[in-house]
From TrEMBL:
It comes from the Bacteria. Belongs to the enoyl-CoA hydratase/isomerase family. It holds the Pfam family ECH_1. This is Enoyl-CoA hydratase-related protein.
Length: 256
């Protein structure tokens, strides 16, 4: 596919989706939202990990405020454009890493937080900037953030709209890790490579179980774990994993 607002490349089982409007800090336009949704939904078969990042000095500054049509119908824009994009990321058939290379603000921050794993450069920051323009956090922020850091910290982030540095975000448990800027690209590549070489079906089941845990009671979660484990136990990767363990060698997972 040819895209105008994103770049999409695949190498060694890793797909890299780069938000590519650096002149406006990768602000989310209607076209960009459609292209992200399309790319995530239609990953090539060989892809076993997806990395989402931004071009230039920022990850994403959030909604493109020059988009008058979106501003005229915020509810419709969220329902028709943001929700399909976020659902595509959450339902992606492979693990998703958000590689936050710079500022992630507003809906751009919550786009990153929708990923399975968030890795940020130490110079990056996360800003729930909505109250600066008289709006409410959206794009899943009011769902994801309180569950990650608790209500007190979530409310502070949202009410004060102050930047949260990557290191503090990691300390709070909002993201997986913050890396020194000079080690960021190499660190993300290593993590993506690890996931691309891992047991893809097991990863998918883990993501399903963790997402469901926010709604399930204990009995429902135990039943889900049993079902997912039964499915994982029928994969070629389970057979390979056990065989490799018994043979005292690294497993060579195929993703099947």
């Amino acid at each position: 596919m040819t895209y105008e607002t994103i770049q999409f490349a695949v190498a060694d089982g890793v797909a890299t989706l780069t938000l590519n409007r650096p002149q406006v800090m990768n602000a989310l336009s209607s076209q960009m939202r459609r292209e992200i949704t399309e790319a995530v939904t239609n990953l090539p078969d060989e892809v076993r990990c997806l990395v989402l990042t931004g071009a230039g000095r920022g990850f994403c500054s959030g909604q493109d405020l020059t988009d008058r049509a979106a501003a005229a119908d915020l509810e419709g824009t969220l329902r028709d454009e943001y929700e399909p994009m976020l659902r595509a990321i959450r339902a992606c058939r492979v693990p998703v890493i958000a590689a936050v290379n710079g500022v992630a603000a507003g809906a751009g921050a919550n786009l990153a937080l929708a990923a399975d794993v968030v890795i940020a450069a130490e110079s990056a920051s996360f800003i729930q900037a909505f109250t600066r323009i008289g709006l409410v956090p959206d794009a899943g922020g009011t769902f994801i953030i309180p569950r990650a850091v608790g209500a007190a910290r979530a409310l502070g982030m949202m009410l004060f709209a102050e930047p949260l540095g990557a290191r503090q975000a990691a300390d709070w448990g909002l993201i997986w890790e913050a890396l020194p800027d000079e080690a960021f690209a190499q660190g993300v590549a290593a993590r993506a490579r690890q996931l691309a070489q891992g047991p893809t079906a097991a990863y998918r089941a883990i993501r399903e179980a963790v997402q469901a845990s926010t709604q399930n009671d204990m009995d429902a979660q135990l039943a889900l774990e049993a079902r997912l484990q039964g499915e994982a136990g029928r994969t070629a990767d389970f057979i390979e994993g056990v065989t490799a363990f018994l043979e005292k060698r690294p497993a060579r997972f195929s993703g099947r």
